[in-house]
Amino acid sequence: MKTRGFLLVTVLSVFGCIMNASLVQALTVASTTKLGSLLKAPLATDILIENVYIKDVRVWCIVKDQDSSNIHGGSGIEFQVKARSAEHFYVTDITGGYPAAVDCFVVKYNNLGNHQTSYNYLKGTAFIDGMPYQMWSFAAKVKMGKAVGTPGEIRLTGLSGGYDACPASLHFSLPDGLDFAEATFTLAKEDLRQDRLPVYSKARMVFSPYMTSRYQCIEDITAPFQLPIKNSFSIKGIASTSCAEVAVNSPLFGIVVVQSSGGNPVLILPTGIGVDGTGYILFDPAGPTLQMILF
Question: Hey, is 5 helix, strand or coil?
Answer without folding.
Answer: helix
